[in-house]
Design goal:
The chain is an alpha/beta fold. It is 43% helix and 15% strand. The chain has 21 helices and 24 strands. Helix 3 (108-115) runs parallel beside helix 4 and helix 18 (654-676) packs antiparallel against helix 19 (687-710). The chain crosses the membrane at residues 493-520, 532-552, 564-588, 608-628, 654-677, 689-710, 716-738.
Length: 770
């Protein structure tokens, strides 16, 4: 509102603006060191006109509001208590000037009276120099009326400690810097309503703070009504005929407190008041300026005491807030206040934010927006008794933390005592997400979340969220479970057994290596292959080492070495056995038939050339295998829903097939040559041992590949791969080397040239007879 507008208003309200009431015992005024302003709705305009005129509204001509007069008495009672206190303002008295405030726009004269100084308003006066009539004021009732007058008080930062304006817009201190309230904002009211709705699981509700009487008139029955702070403790509506049929009414009101001494105060005031003194209508119109109440003197003390107490504590706390702030500004102690300090309105405003005191057992304090600590009660309208009663059934507090409770046992629901169902849709079962239908989010169908997803109602009940890579869930889940990471670990029993077997195998191979080296010149070692035995034993030792790469967390290096080492060196060993079998046949059967070929074979060390050739070809194939299509460590999360299997997997099996073909072909040649030499001398006949070892080799790997392709992937397939390697090595060790080691250690008489010569002679004689 501009300054020019204010001056226009001043002109319009001069007929009653500066008239000072001189009644001796008026409800509307009291002399004191510091005056407080009060605005209360002693009357209400049934229909507000929108046309603006400078003339003020005469409230006494409109509908009376008994609750407004009860509010006025609470203010008077609080002022009297403070003036009688010997500690709050010991030697300072409070006075007041109160106006009937019934219009949203046409009662500004009272506010101009409050902010005037010696009969005039000076908007540009410095705060330090300006002393308006009142130090602070409380009221008016209603947000619209408060928003209308608040800018006038902002000019001089006069504290407007309001008891009945809930609009959240008033919390904006940029626009309303001097506004303070002792009742919660409508934002807090809505939060309380939401708490009630959530408590009972409702989501299909309608809002309307004016249809209750229409509902009664139209015989609307068995509903649940939530009464806002404004009418939660209304004294007239619960007495309306037919109210008991509309259903359950739950009111939300400020924390209900008693005021000791208030009843005595009202009885005493009723005995001395003269607010209803008889005055001519013309005199009232020209002099009182909304400080007259013709019906108030007709109210009994009981009627005043039993009026709607919804805003009683708010008014009571507003007056005490002003008094405590004045106590701080005047630097009061328990004995006196510093009267040489002149309190200015803006000084009180600075102290109000710091206040924190207990009033009738309830904490009074304000946040940065000058909003109070929230303490709500939920009350049940007991219309089944006469007179109607209000029974507390729940509480809501925001300090020091949000707490909400409702006593369901006290609520007499209309449908057989059970909580009414008020939802657009039936709540989804556990593990089902909502799918919105129409415009309202509370109207939905339900859809079960698929596997590896979940619904979290605290996060978003309309979405099935996918589980993270390391998690899983069944169909219709509300949370994901952590997948167990599976691979053959060093500490598992099966792993330990296989690794111990491999270690024992290596130790045994090394021991045989040493035994053969020590007995290198003996016939048994010579017949077993001589120096070739050491290459075979070394290859088997290196092949055994590959077993240890199957255990522990798979890596790229482990995946390459676990099979590549075995395939290469085991093939070298088989190629040695093949050459050895061929060489024995050559000596006993081919030397006489193909002497030149045999001579070239011996002259050029054909056995070593063959081994070198096979080893080189096999090395090339292994290098291609490890570089073109290498085995990779992957995390298999699709085979088992609750596991992540760390395995080594090849993208293309062609190169592996080539590597395996060379090894298996060498084995086939070895079997063939061994079979051809089945009738050789016993000491040179390796057909049975080689056949046994190679058949074991083939069967083991056939079993492994069958299990790999026919069964699901698991860590046991990996362990089976390691077992297949150990079994293959054991086949050659026990069928070929252990038997020869046994002769060297336990049958030395068979490890002599003479014994071998006798065996050859017997074979020759047998051949000559055939």
């Amino acid at each position: 509102m501009t300054l020019s507008s204010i001056y226009i208003l001043l002109v319009g309200f001069t007929n009653c603006f500066f008239f000072k009431i001189s009644w001796s015992a008026s409800d509307f005024s009291l002399e004191g060191d510091y005056l407080l302003g009060g605005l209360f709705p002693l009357h209400e305009i049934e229909k507000e006109t929108t046309l603006f005129s400078a003339e003020t509204t005469e409230c006494f001509r409109h509908i009376s509001s008994k609750s407004g007069y009860g509010m006025l008495q609470i203010m008077r009672f609080a002022v009297e208590e403070i003036n009688n206190s010997t500690t709050l303002l010991p030697n300072v008295s409070l006075g007041y000037e109160i106006f009937d405030y019934c219009s949203n726009t046409k009662n500004i004269n009272s506010v101009l009276s409050f902010i005037s100084k010696n009969g005039s308003v000076k908007p540009k006066e410095k705060l330090n120099n300006y002393q308006p009539k009142v130090i602070a004021l409380t009221g008016p009732y209603g947000s619209t009326r408060t928003i209308t007058i608040a800018p006038l008080l902002t000019m001089d930062l006069i504290p407007l400690v309001n008891y009945g304006a809930a609009s959240y817009a008033l919390s904006n201190k940029l626009h309303y810097p001097s506004f303070v309230r002792t009742v919660p904002s409508n934002k807090d009211m809505i939060e309380m309503i939401i708490q009630i709705i959530r408590w009972f699981g409702w989501n299909w509700v309608a809002f309307s703070i004016k249809i209750i009487k229409a509902a009664i008139a139209n015989n609307i029955q068995d509903k649940v009504w939530i009464a806002s702070h404004a009418w939660a403790l209304n004294q007239q509506i619960p007495r309306e005929p037919g109210i008991e049929k509309i259903g359950t009414v739950i009111g939300i009101t400020d924390r209900l407190l008693s005021f000791p001494g208030f009843s005595e105060f009202v009885y005493k005031a009723r005995a001395t008041t003269d607010v209803g003194y008889d005055v001519a209508e013309g005199e009232v119109k020209s002099k009182t300026c909304n400080q007259v109440c013709d019906y108030c003197s007709l109210l009994t003390a009981e009627e005043i005491i039993n009026e709607n107490p919804s805003f009683s504590f708010g008014i009571y706390a507003a007056i005490y807030t002003i008094a405590h702030a004045l106590h701080k500004v005047l630097q009061c102690d328990i004995n006196e206040c510093q009267k040489n300090t002149m309190a200015k309105p803006y000084m009180l405003l600075g102290e109000i934010k710091k206040l924190d005191f207990i009033l009738n057992g309830r904490e009074v304090k304000y946040d940065e927006n000058y909003d109070p600590a929230i303490s709500y009660d939920a009350v049940l309208w007991r219309t089944d008794v006469n007179p109607p009663q209000f029974q507390m059934v729940g509480t809501y507090d925001k300090h020091p933390e949000i707490t909400f409770t409702m006593d369901n046992s006290l609520l007499p629901w209309h449908n057989n005592g059970s909580v009414p169902f008020s939802n657009c849709s039936v709540e989804c079962k556990v593990g089902h997400s909502r799918k919105t239908e129409g415009f309202h989010s509370c109207c939905f169908t339900c859809k079960k979340c698929p596997p590896n997803s979940y619904v979290d109602f605290s996060r978003d009940p309309y979405t099935c969220f996918p589980c993270a890579e390391g998690e899983w869930s069944d169909e219709g889940s509300t949370a994901c479970k952590t997948r167990s990471v599976v691979y053959p670990q060093f500490t598992e029993i099966l792993s330990i057994i296989v690794m111990v077997s491999a270690a024992c195998l290596i130790i045994l191979l090394i021991a045989i290596f040493c035994l053969f080296a020590y007995n290198y010149d003996t016939p048994v070692v010579k017949s077993a292959g001589g120096s070739m035995c050491f290459l075979m034993l070394t290859s088997l030792i290196l092949s055994s080492i590959s077993v240890f790469f199957f255990f522990g967390k798979p890596t790229f290096v482990f995946c390459l070495l676990r099979n590549a080492i075995f395939e290469y060196f085991f093939t070298v060993c088989i190629s040695c056995l093949t050459v050895r079998s061929f060489q024995i046949i050559s000596v006993f059967k081919m030397a006489s038939q193909f002497p030149k070929v045999y001579s070239l074979w011996v002259k050029h060390n054909g056995q070593w050339l063959f081994i070198a050739f096979v080893s080189f070809i096999h090395l090339i194939s292994c290098v291609i295998w490890m570089t073109v299509n290498p085995v990779k460590a992957i995390a298999d999360s699709w085979t088992f829903k609750d596991q992540i299997i760390l395995i080594c997997e090849m993208e293309n099996t062609i190169t592996l097939t080539i590597v395996m073909f060379i090894s298996w072909f060498m084995g086939f040649l070895c079997l063939l040559f061994s079979y051809m030499g089945r009738d050789l001398p016993k000491n040179y006949n390796e057909a049975k041992s080689i056949t046994f070892s190679l058949i074991l080799y083939y069967l083991t790997w056939i079993a492994y590949f069958t299990a790999t392709y026919l069964s699901v992937k698991s860590k046991y397939i990996v362990i089976l791969n390691a077992v297949a390697q150990v079994s293959s090595i054991n086949g050659i060790l026990f069928s070929y080397f252990i038997s020869k080691s046994y002769i060297i250690i336990f049958q030395p008489q068979k490890n002599t040239p003479a014994y071998f010569q006798t065996s050859i002679q017997n074979y020759t004689q047998t051949i000559s007879r055939t």
